[in-house]
Design brief:
Four copies of one chain form a homotetramer.
Chain A (H helix, E strand, L loop, with lengths): L1 E5 L4 H10 L6 E6 L8 H4 L21 E4 L5 H11 L3 E4 L9 H8 L13 E2 L2 H10 L2 E3 L3 H15 L9 E6 L14 H4 L4 E2 L7 H13 L6 E6 L6 E8 L6 H11 L6 E3 L17 E8 L4 E8 L3 H15 L16
Chain lengths: 341, 341, 341, 341
């Protein structure tokens, strides 16, 4: 299986390189980057010890079986038609194919969608929700990091009607690598370290992505409060979700719902009662961990989910999708557990 | 003004020492600790460069004007009567005098209150709410760190009827020093660093303290969801609060309410529109910073407040209370701004 | 290949579990721990998602092919004879078999060596120095973390006579996981974070281990200055070594010496000129990275080496040794590159 | 006393603002910055709560008593003549006046010195070495952060002839704020956090500054090995220094030398035997802490010194110099002890 990567020198691109290196069925034959063309990958990332592979212009994509695109939004959508026509399957780690309605894309990304017709061809690449569709498609919209953690927690309970779709609050916390490798004052070590803040309050672009999928789960529109925060750590996302339960639902029923939904799933784990997820449980791995509590005093359920934003929240999930698309065991190349400590 | 400290070697005790060192009117004459008696303070904290003061048994309190008590709960309440009778004013940094109803104390602290009669004598030491009462009393219940940040954000809006008392969610995040200086697996550097988690979900003892004060603000009982999280940093608390606004309240009205309430307050600051609080703004200082946003899509207001948990959330506020009790300018010894970076 | 682990719940034990999980030839059949016997491993480490394996008393070692011992010093030496007699190969991650002379052990570890006769049977498990001996032996003294980084940097240059054995200074820096999982004030997050210190100055037990191997490299006794420091990070060791070069040696010759010595080595990498090692290059991996500079102003060479203290500095190296002992490809189970970022 | 600051929005400029805010004798009347002119200081630093002061062009310096210059090198030297002629005293936090010989400046800073004649007028602003000269001068070259920590440790012992001037190794470690507020890949949180590295090996510009002062201490030229490292923390410098003692000097004599030299010094503290400095001891304060050990096995003394790089290593020391120049008590505005934890 020949694999190409566009945008290989960003954090998600580099994470694809790291994981694919130990993937038994995939061979990276092409690495493209506009900013680092003609350099060897080891010049950018000296720790990739045996990689003398040359980075090429991102325009010259050869005939690969599958192409990962980790590019600024707008670019993937412009180039997809041509690549698909050549028989190249696409897994896009950006936002171009995630939102079904182009007007929502334009509202939140402040950009006319360059290729709205293609949106029907894409499938939302969250295997725990869309496994069968992923197997059949050639264009995967790999989910955002916050949506992955949020949807894994919420969708089963919403779908089962155990929690109400009104008034949902998602209070999310992410490590700094989620902001990408670009530099600006907000990622300066001295301004992040020993510091914690909310950002993009009421304005984060993952909001409509989450709302779309929650809406699909219940069959009607869902509006949420989503507030992301920046944690002084490199990797990891934790979401704390508050939702009103429907009528007389017990904590046991809520847990059973998750348990049934994720029975047999290799990457989603409901922790034993009383054990709360820590982002480090998923560090460097494709595993997600969940826990919940029903608070009878208020009638709300508190859901907590964690993932590694660069793995299950990006590159690991992309490879999970690749495995599905090519009929491989879903865990190929993704067997590692989290790094502890 | 002669000052004593009981429990001087914990983090809040040590923070009292640090701040009082530059306080022009206070002289520390007595430091008591059960665990470190007969040592010099510089043996415990070598950075307290000129302190050769001897730590004494915590039983032998001399005739000081004011005594700070930073002790495990249960102890302060047992000893208060005797100390007050000797004319010693008490500022307690623990929980013994914070809850007005002993049965609530017993429910959350799993301990029969050792001295329920005394609860009427205590005033809740949040100067921005109870300034006048604090001036007149001899027994101050210094608020918890989470309650300080939560109440400063919520009380004005609740009191003014701008937000609803039902369905309030407080999602709180704290640095590790909030857990105190005691050692256990949960504070091991390698298990906290590069990690983020929720803890004590639905069970944190600051919940009834917040609820009591919110209830007093609206004149009827308030029940909240309160979820604390541990941030891999040493100092700082940020609370993100979600509350439904009442009817047609605008963001401007919400901001005006805060602005009016805190006009002239030396330590509480509403940031300019669009500037969101960071815990580091208050690092090592007694300042609190606030910001909010009204989200018309959901009808909720999102409030964010930050403090330094050891200063405005503990020892700085205790000294602010002392200043009030002794008729000193409220900012005496507390003029420092946050350390940046 | 049946594998057992004694002391499985410490950080090096857990790291063995993590790595062996993806090792194609090894099956863990026994996990022993005195502190956690009769618990399931997932009770201690919830992130080890599919491990329902029961932890057993560390006394009941079954007939495994190889046993990893990660125990406090003194214990492994007492038990080794019996285990070896049963045909069990031993890889000891502690210090009991590292020092050839029992009197040196007693001087630095303040303990009479419980089994001095056995020291001749052990081989020092640094594959880059002792590969052939490791293949033939049943008792491996897995090196300490600081010695691994120090010896990889120094031995080739000393052996080749390019640097002088007198006056060597090793200034070493380690992440906190090197101190193990036990709790005490010195590993409290709030006392390590935003802090840096030297410790055990002139007294660290890895000193004689390094000196012994340097002595073997030059054929006469070597005395060094070794100063370890604690870095506010979880994983990683960096050593900065200062050594006087012999006569008119050029930087090029020093680099060539390393290059020749490590040609073909899968885990030791000389970085390109001007690229200096960062501990993160080896994060979670078995790779070591080296760089040097000759300073003509002083006649000293400055060598810098990095490893992950828990992988190449402990458990990864132990598995590298296991691979050698059982005739497997040396990199089996150890193909991962460092996690970045 | 009217004070101006040029370059007020960098980290050292901002630290001057923080400290001067509590200085009883100084009034800031002018803040200049080329990058932030016409903004209010609170727009750059929202935590400076009561500062509505306008930032001005750095060209328009009014008639202040003393001007702090925190500018890129080359600029201060060009402007000093004009300012001094107007009777304005200058404390320069940059490198323009630190090196007495312009050719050394040119060699290490790759810039022709713009005003070599002025170098004679400047005094090196390390009060513990040059207190009397500082009182008499109008132009202060405030020392670099690494030189401050290194010289405080070494000068007394070298001057007393207790250690040899040949073969000195200074292995230095700094927090990230030492790199300034500018952004680049090397200060991206995700590339610094959980990482440790050496940098500028053999090339750091503080090398000749240290060598010049050591040379003045012994009366002949001194050449050292100086290697800086980047610690994943915001503030703090620790230097570990290795020096051969002269003949039969004992550890006691070395300690006595320090003790005598720093008797009565308000900011330099020799810790009790066995207590090693931690950078956090000086966090946010102007205090330096020292410790040493003589190692008879090698004949070397190991010296360790810590400071806060932004305080004693920059802005605090600048204010200490200002106090001296204006006949104020040396500790005015600098009474704070380190923040712990």
């Amino acid at each position: 299986m020949k694999v190409g990567i566009l945008g290989a020198t960003g954090y998600t691109g580099q994470e694809l390189l790291r994981i694919l290196k130990t993937h038994s069925e995939a061979e990276i034959v092409y690495i493209g980057s506009s900013t680092s063309a003609d350099k060897k990958i080891a010049e950018i990332y000296p720790h990739l010890t045996d990689s003398n592979m040359l980075i090429l212009e991102k325009e010259e994509v050869p005939d690969v079986d599958v192409l990962f695109m980790a590019l600024p939004h707008g670019i993937a959508a412009s180039r997809a038609d041509e690549l698909l026509a050549r028989g190249i399957k696409i897994i896009d780690l950006g936002a171009d194919f995630r939102l079904q309605r182009p007007e929502i894309y334009e509202e939140w990304y402040k950009l006319n969608h360059p290729n709205p017709q293609i949106l029907n061809e894409a499938v939302y690449g969250l295997p725990e929700l869309y496994r069968e569709e992923i197997k059949d498609r050639s264009l995967i919209a790999n989910p955002g990091c916050y949506p992955t953690a949020s949807l894994l927690s919420l969708v089963p309970l919403l779908q089962a009607g155990l929690v109400q779709k009104e008034g949902i609050v998602i209070d999310a916390k992410s490590g700094v690598s989620g902001a990408g490798r670009g530099v600006n004052q907000a990622v300066h070590f001295a301004e992040v370290n020993e510091n914690f803040k909310a950002y993009a309050v009421g304005e984060h672009r993952h909001t409509p992505e989450i709302e779309q999928q929650l809406g699909l789960a219940v069959g009607s529109s869902v509006i949420i409060n989503f507030t992301p925060h920046l944690v002084p750590m490199t990797r990891g996302i934790l979401v704390t979700i508050y939702a009103d339960v429907n009528g007389k639902v017990s904590e046991k029923e809520l847990r059973s719902c998750w348990q049934d939904y994720y029975a047999g799933e290799p990457f989603v784990h409901l922790l034993p009662e009383g054990v709360w997820p820590q982002t480090k449980y998923s560090y460097g791995s494709n595993h997600a961990f969940l826990q919940l509590k029903y608070e009878p005093r208020t009638g709300k359920a508190v859901l907590v989910g964690v993932i590694d934003n660069l793995v299950k929240g990006a590159s690991g999930q992309a490879i999970q999708n690749m495995n599905l698309m090519f009929g491989l065991p879903e865990t190929t190349g993704l067997v590692t557990t989290g790094l502890w400590p």
